[in-house]
Automatic annotation (TrEMBL):
UniProt organism field: Pseudomonas asgharzadehiana
The protein's name: NADP-dependent oxidoreductase
Pfam family, one: ADH_zinc_N_2
CDD domains: MDR_like_2
Boundaries of every Enoyl reductase (ER) domain copy: 14-329
Listed Gene3D superfamilies: Medium-chain alcohol dehydrogenases, catalytic domain, NAD(P)-binding Rossmann-like Domain
Lineage: Bacteria, Pseudomonadati, Pseudomonadota, Gammaproteobacteria, Pseudomonadales
């Protein structure tokens, strides 16, 4: 089968080549990939940014998100059958959706929402699971609470705004001048043009901040929160709890303790909570997200669709950081 793979770490590495068909274990589902979305995570994996946490072997097929059709199931699989239309975020250790076929553990898989096509379904898993695990699991966001979501026009931001509004929260976000009205249409109550206004002096007494930017914005975000509020980052730094949960070597746990000590200490001084969320795969949560999509509460946002032979161009486009919503690769 054909796949987009890398032979070593590096920013511009990547080629389309022939690779063996994946082996299907007892709990695996073999999926013919119809569409796969591109995430910033794919770029970071390509450059080796996560090689200490995710030690992949080469050649490595890139790609985390997928939507497609089941063509084979393992002997122990009972929830899926050939012909099912499915979507998933592949498990960390077995990524590889930039390919014609992928074997996915059944626990990571869910039936695709009926009311969207493959391209829009592929745009959902990683960003929707991230939003869910930040807002529902970690923040336990409640009706009437106030949440600030950074970068509202991005992949995570565009879904997190919709999910937060569904949960009954008051939502503030940031974007560039060109996207203000577009982000308001997603449901944001307050949209700040970061080129015209300082968000950190404009917002106060928020319950939750979803942080996805750099270290400067991380510390400034503490000033937006009210006592007892939660600063939840998806861009780091990781915490010792993250290292423990992922059973990382003690030296990495120590490094994460040191890296996050400053922001954790500053949060404690303000009686705030700091959490780091590294999204995990979950077919069970994708089933709940499917229901929200079919009910119209969440609508996936697709910026551009690239053909499979232009996968390298799709990665380059995402790395520019200017996409509205998600970038998708079509394998139809």
């Amino acid at each position: 089968m054909k796949a987009f793979l890398i032979d070593r770490y590096g920013k511009h590495n990547g080629r389309i080549g022939e690779v063996p068909t994946p082996e299907v274990g007892d709990h695996d589902v073999l999926v013919q990939v119809r569409a796969a979305s591109v995430n910033v995570l794919d770029s970071k994996i390509r450059t080796g940014e996560f090689k200490l946490i995710l030690p992949y072997a080469f050649p490595l097929i890139l790609g985390n998100d997928l939507a497609g059709v089941v063509i084979q199931v393992g002997a122990a699989v009972s929830g899926f059958k050939p012909g099912d239309e499915v979507y998933a975020r592949a498990p960390d250790a077995r990524i590889g959706s930039f390919a014609e076929l992928i074997a996915v553990h059944e626990d990571a898989l869910a039936l695709k929402p009926d009311n969207i096509d493959m391209e829009h379904a592929a745009a959902l898993p990683l960003v929707a699971l991230t939003a869910w695990q930040v807002l529902v699991e970690t923040a336990q966001l409640k009706k009437g609470q106030k949440v600030f979501i950074q970068a509202g026009s991005g992949g995570v931001g565009s879904i997190a705004i919709q999910l937060a509004k569904h949960l009954g929260a008051f939502v503030a976000t940031t974007t560039s001048s060109a996207n203000v009205q577009w982000v308001k249409a997603l449901g944001a109550d307050v949209v700040i043009d970061y080129k015209q206004q300082d968000v950190y002096s404009a917002l106060h007494d928020y319950d939750v901040v979803l942080h996805s930017l750099g270290a400067d914005e991380l510390e400034k975000s503490l000033g937006i929160l009210k006592p007892g509020g939660r600063l939840i980052s998806i861009s780091g730094p990781p915490t010792p709890q993250f290292a423990q949960a992922h059973m990382l070597p003690w030296v990495l746990g120590l490094a994460m303790r040191v890296l996050s000590s400053g922001i954790r200490r500053k949060a404690r001084r303000k009686t705030l909570n700091y959490d780091f969320v590294f999204m995990r795969q979950s077919g069970a949560q994708l089933k709940q997200i499917k229901q929200l999509v079919e009910a119209g509460a969440i609508k996936p946002v697709v910026d551009r669709v690239f053909p499979f032979d232009a996968t390298a161009d799709a990665l380059g486009y995402v790395e520019q950081g200017r996409s509205k919503g998600k970038v998708v690769i079509s394998l139809k």
